[in-house]
Design a protein that fits this description.
single chain; alpha+beta; Heat Shock Protein 90; five-stranded mixed β-sheet; 21 helices; 22 strands
C-alpha cells in the first residue's frame, strides 16, 4: 500500500474537552448567525427554568450589560461546589468544561428538564471569550473565571452571603471569531423568550434588564398556558369566552393543554416539551390532533349534528379557528437535534391522546352551548373545504411545464429553470404594461394585478378560489393551494411584489403578504418573497440620462445637502431655507407617486435591473408576532386596528392620501 493511502491512528483527530464545540459550533447551537448567538442565552435561561420545574427556583433574570456581555441569574439551588468523584475537579468546573456532564442524566438531579444532552452551559463556555460563574450556597459566594472554555484558576469561596441565599449567576462574552455576523444581542428577542418561559411555568417570574438604556421588564402569569391562549387570541372574536384547560399526569408524562376557538379561519397551535418549543411538532402534537378530531366527530354523531350518511369531519375542519397550547413534561425527552425542533418520544402520543380524549369529551358534554358552536364551525369549514376542492380541481396546473392553464394576463419568461426565474406581481395594468415592455423576457415574468386583492384574513379558501386575482396568482406560481400545495412546483424562485410607493400600494402589498403568510407560508420560509423598492424621487439634470433616482426621504436630504455644500465650496452663496436651492444643480425635482409615471426604460433601470434594483427579502422571524400583526391589520376587529393607527400615526411623515 502506498504512503498516501495508509489509514492509521495518527490520522484520527481526537478533540478533547470543549474543542469539538469550537470546531463545529453549528452541531451544538444550530448555526453561528443571530439564532445561534441567542441560543447561548436560551441554554442558560433553560437551566434556571429547569430549577423552577424541579421546584427550587422562582425567578430567572437576564441582564444585558453595557459592555455587550450577558448575565443570567437564577435563585435555584446553585451548581454543587464539591469535588466531583470522577473528574477530581469541582462540580462547577466539571459542568462548565465537560460535555454531557450535568444533572440531567439521572442520579436524581432533575426529574424533568428542558436540556437534552446536558451540554448547555459547557457549550456557552466554549463559545465565549470570557465567562465567569458565581454560585451562592451554604452562606458562601463561590467564583471562577474562564477564557474560551479554559479555567483561569480553581473555584474559590470569595465572600460570604446570607445562609438562605442560593442560586447561580453566569456572565459571558460571545466570541466574535465564532459569531462573525454579530455579537449584539436583541432585547426584543430575549424579551419574547422570557415571556414564553413565564407562560409555560406557572408561578415563575422572568425579568430582562438592559443596562445600556435602563429598560426593565418582568413577566409573571398565574394562569400559565391559559393566559398564553388568551394572549394569542387577543383581538380575535372567541366562539366562547371559556378556555378549555387540563393538567393531568399519565405514567411519568405530565400533559397540560389549553385551547379556545375563535371566529377566524386560521389555526394556531404551539407545542412544547419541558418548556422547549418544538416548531416541527412531534408525538405530542400528533396525539393532540388525533384526539381532537375523534372527540368532535363522536360528539357530533351522538348529538345528531352530523348525519348518518355524512362523512366525518376532517382534522383540518375541526381545527379551523383553533388556538391551542400543548405542554408536556417528561423525564427523558428525545428531540431531533440539539435545537430540539421535534419531539420523538412515541409513548407521549398515547399519553396526550388519552388525556385529551377523556377530558375534552367531559368538557363538551358539560358545555353543550360551546360544543354546538365548535361543531357548527367545523361543519361550515367542511362545506367550504368541499366547495374549494371542487373549484381547485378545475384550476390547479397538471404539471410545472404545462402552460395551458396559465392566466391570460401573465407575460411568462422563456427560462424554464425556476432558480433563475422571477415573477413580478405588479399593481395595475398601466405599470404592468411598462414592466412587460422593459423587462428581461428571458428570466422575468410579469403578472399585473387589477385593483385590490381579496383580503384572505376574512375569507375561506372557497371564496378565495372565486377571486380572479388570487386565482391567477395560484395558477402562475404552480405550487397549488391547501392540501394540494407543494413547494416543488414553484416556477419562480423570486416572487417580487412591485406596488406604488403610496398608501394604496402599501395596502396591496399587505394584502399579498397576508395571502402568502396564511396560505403559502412555505414560500415565505423558503426566502422566495421579495418587495421591490421603486424610487420616490428623480432629480433631473440637463439630459435625462444624467438623472439621479432617490429611494427614500432620508437619502434625498443627504443628496440635496451634499449638492448645497458643493455649491458653497464653489463660492456661491446659498440659503438652505430658499426652495430654489433645495434642487440646486438640478433642472427639476420630481416625486413619483406611481409606477405608471415611469416609462418602460426607467422602470427597468430603477426597479427591475438586477444590477441596480433594491429588493427587500421578506422573512418571518417570529411567527407568533407576525400572526398577531396580520390579525390586527387585516382582521375583523375594527377597534384593534383603530388603536394601532392612533398609536402609530405620529411616526408617519409626508402621508399621501
Amino acid at each position: 500500500m502506498s504512503q498516501g493511502k495508509q489509514y492509521s491512528a495518527d490520522q484520527i483527530q481526537v478533540l478533547e474537552g470543549l474543542e469539538p464545540v469550537r470546531k463545529r459550533p453549528g452541531m451544538y447551537i444550530g448555526g453561528t448567525g443571530t439564532e445561534g448567538l441567542h441560543h447561548l442565552v436560551w441554554e442558560l435561561v433553560d437551566n434556571g427554568i429547569d430549577e423552577a420545574l424541579a421546584g427550587y427556583a422562582t425567578h430567572v433574570i437576564v441582564e444585558m450589560l453595557e459592555d455587550g456581555a450577558i448575565r443570567v441569574t437564577d435563585d435555584g439551588r446553585g451548581i454543587p461546589t464539591d469535588i466531583h468523584p470522577k473528574t477530581g475537579k469541582s462540580t462547577v468546573e466539571t459542568v462548565l468544561t465537560v460535555l454531557h456532564a450535568g444533572g440531567k442524566f439521572g442520579g436524581g438531579g432533575y426529574k424533568v428538564s428542558g436540556g437534552l444532552h446536558g451540554v448547555g452551559v459547557s457549550v456557552v463556555n466554549a463559545l465565549a471569550t470570557k465567562l465567569s460563574v458565581k454560585v451562592f450556597r451554604d452562606g458562601k459566594v463561590y467564583y471562577q473565571e474562564y477564557e474560551t472554555g479554559v479555567p483561569q484558576g480553581d473555584l474559590k469561596a470569595v465572600d460570604k452571603c446570607d445562609a438562605d441565599k442560593h442560586g447561580t449567576e453566569i456572565t459571558f462574552y460571545a466570541d466574535a471569531t465564532i459569531f462573525l455576523e454579530s455579537t449584539t444581542f436583541s432585547y426584543d428577542t430575549i424579551l419574547d423568550r422570557l415571556r414564553h418561559a413565564a407562560y409555560l411555568t406557572k408561578g415563575v417570574r422572568t425579568t430582562l434588564i438592559n443596562h445600556a438604556n435602563g429598560k426593565k421588564y418582568s413577566f409573571y402569569f398565574e394562569g400559565g398556558i391559559k393566559s398564553y391562549v388568551a394572549n394569542l387570541n387577543q383581538g380575535k372574536e372567541p366562539v366562547d369566552e371559556d378556555i378549555f384547560y387540563v393538567d393531568k399526569t399519565v405514567e411519568e408524562t405530565q400533559v397540560e393543554v389549553a385551547l379556545q376557538y375563535t371566529e377566524s379561519f386560521s389555526e394556531t397551535i404551539k407545542q412544547f416539551a419541558n418548556n422547549v418549543f418544538n416548531p416541527d411538532g412531534g408525538s405530542h402534537l400528533t396525539g393532540f390532533r388525533s384526539a381532537l378530531t375523534r372527540v368532535i366527530n363522536e360528539y357530533a354523531r351522538k348529538q345528531g349534528l352530523l348525519k348518518e350518511k355524512e362523512e366525518n369531519l376532517s382534522g383540518e375542519d375541526t381545527r379551523e379557528g383553533l388556538t391551542a397550547v400543548i405542554l408536556v413534561k417528561l423525564p427523558n425527552p428525545q428531540f431531533e437535534g440539539q435545537t430540539k425542533n421535534k419531539l420523538g418520544n412515541p409513548e407521549v402520543r398515547g399519553h396526550v391522546e388519552q388525556v385529551m380524549t377523556e377530558y375534552l369529551s367531559y368538557y363538551l358534554e358539560e358545555h353543550p352551548n360551546v360544543a354546538r358552536k365548535i361543531v357548527g364551525k367545523a361543519l361550515l369549514a367542511a362545506r367550504a373545504r368541499k366547495a374549494a376542492r371542487a373549484a381547485r380541481d378545475n384550476i390547479i396546473r397538471k404539471g410545472v411545464l404545462d402552460g395551458a392553464s396559465m392566466p391570460g394576463k401573465l407575460a411568462d419568461c422563456s427560462s424554464k429553470d425556476p432558480a433563475s426565474s422571477e415573477i413580478y406581481l405588479v399593481e395595475g395594468d398601466s405599470a404592468g404594461g411598462s414592466a412587460k415592455t422593459g423587462r428581461d423576457s428571458k428570466t422575468q415574468a410579469i403578472l399585473p394585478l387589477r385593483g385590490k386583492v381579496l383580503n384572505v384574513e376574512r375569507a375561506r379558501l372557497d371564496k378565495m378560489l372565486a377571486n380572479n386575482e388570487i386565482l391567477n396568482l395560484i395558477k402562475a406560481l404552480g405550487v397549488g393551494i391547501g392540501d394540494s400545495f407543494s413547494l416543488d412546483g414553484l416556477r419562480y424562485h423570486r416572487v417580487i411584489i412591485m406596488t406604488d410607493a403610496d398608501v394604496d400600494g402599501s395596502h396591496i402589498s399587505t394584502l399579498l403578504l397576508t395571502f402568502f403568510f396564511r396560505y403559502m407560508k412555505e414560500v415565505v420560509d423558503g426566502g422566495h418573497i421579495y418587495l421591490a423598492k421603486p424610487p420616490l424621487f428623480e432629480l433631473v439634470k440637463a439630459g435625462r440620462k444624467n438623472s439621479v433616482f432617490i429611494y427614500d426621504e432620508a437619502e434625498l436630504e443627504v443628496k440635496l445637502d451634499d449638492t448645497i455644500a458643493a455649491r458653497k465650496k464653489e463660492g456661491i452663496k446659498v440659503n438652505p431655507d430658499d426652495e430654489r436651492y433645495k434642487q440646486a444643480g438640478f433642472i427639476e425635482q420630481k416625486r413619483y407617486k406611481g409606477l405608471g409615471e415611469m416609462d418602460a426604460e426607467q422602470l427597468f433601470e430603477t426597479t427591475m435591473n438586477p444590477e441596480k434594483r433594491v429588493l427587500v427579502q421578506v422573512k418571518v422571524e417570529d411567527t407568533e408576532k407576525a400572526d398577531a400583526i396580520f390579525n390586527k391589520l387585516m382582521g375583523t376587529e375594527v377597534e384593534l386596528r383603530k388603536n394601532f393607527i392612533t398609536a402609530n400615526a405620529k411616526f408617519v411623515k409626508d402621508l399621501d392620501i
